[in-house]
């Protein structure tokens, strides 16, 4: 296998991983739309199967990328006269990596975990709205008021209702995206860590990489505001 072919293959694999990631994002959005539109549970659950299939494809592509990278690193350490057969070396690396795979890997896929977590929240909140579908307007208004009091739509930083909520994967607290990122950037310039703005939280190192969009909460907020 010529080195040029290796570079091309590695680049193609990374593009595949990017396409798989985009596919998982689309599948997640479709599942959320189905819940919000009160579709059959079976339709919603079918999207979880799609996400697991994507997770499996993602793992397979990642295995190949790791095998290529390990192979390249080994070749770089070898003297020219000692370089082994590249094709066999790649197969060897790939087999070793795949032998460590397990079914639980798929459940640990970051996008799949996000999907499951957010879908659970979506089902819970929109089931509440659906269950009140036959109530009087007064009862619905009362339920909405209760829901508002139970759910924290207010950003701990701005003290205003959130428009683009993001959740901290470390401590689980939620903030307005723009507000928390502004604090992180400001403290970064001063080379200081950011304490979680939620009162009583002991987490003292909030990072931008720890923040994920809370699509479930955003949709609930949007839905409640349309009432």
What descriptors fit this protein?
227 residues, mainly alpha, Herpes Virus-1, 2 domains, 3-stranded antiparallel sheet, 3 strands, 66% helix
Structure, described:
Residues 47-74 form a coiled coil. Pfam families: zf-Nse (PF11789). Residues 140-226 form the SP-RING-type domain. The relative contact order is 0.10. A hairpin with a 5-residue loop joins strand 1 (165-168) and strand 2. The protein has helices at residues 3-36, 41-77, 86-98, 104-107, 110-131, 137-150, 177-189, 215-226; strands at 165-168, 174-176, 211-213. Helix 1 packs parallel to helix 5. A three-stranded antiparallel beta sheet has the order 2-1-3. The radius of gyration is 23 Å and the shape is flat. The model is unreliable at 133-150 (pLDDT under 50). It folds into two domains: 3-128; 165-225, Herpes Virus-1 (2-Layer Sandwich), CATH 3.30.40.10. The longest helix has 37 residues, at 41-77. The chain has 227 residues and is mostly helical.
Short description:
This protein is 66% helix and 4% strand. The protein is mainly alpha-helical and 227 residues long. Pathway: Protein modification; protein sumoylation.
């Amino acid at each position: 296998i010529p080195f040029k072919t290796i570079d091309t293959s590695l680049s193609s694999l990374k593009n595949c991983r990017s396409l798989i990631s985009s596919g998982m994002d689309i599948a997640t959005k479709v599942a959320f739309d189905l819940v919000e539109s009160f579709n059959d549970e079976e339709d919603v659950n079918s999207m979880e199967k799609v996400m697991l299939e994507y997770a499996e494809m993602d793992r397979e592509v990642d295995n190949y990328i790791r095998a290529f990278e390990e192979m390249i690193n080994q070749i770089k350490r070898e003297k020219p006269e000692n370089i082994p057969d590249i094709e066999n070396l790649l197969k060897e690396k790939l087999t070793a990596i795949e032998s460590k795979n397990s079914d639980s890997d798929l459940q640990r896929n970051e996008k799949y975990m996000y999907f499951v977590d957010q879908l659970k929240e979506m089902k819970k909140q929109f089931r509440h709205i659906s269950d009140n579908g036959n109530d009087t307007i007064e009862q619905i208004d009362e339920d909405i008021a209760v829901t508002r009091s139970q759910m924290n739509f207010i950003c701990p930083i701005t003290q205003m209702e959130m428009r683009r909520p993001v959740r901290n994967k470390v401590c689980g607290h939620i903030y307005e995206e723009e507000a928390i990122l502004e604090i992180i950037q400001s403290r970064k310039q001063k080379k200081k860590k950011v304490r979680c703005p939620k009162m009583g939280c002991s987490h003292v190192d909030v990072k931008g990489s720890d923040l994920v969009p809370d699509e479930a909460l955003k949709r609930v907020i949007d839905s409640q505001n349309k009432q």
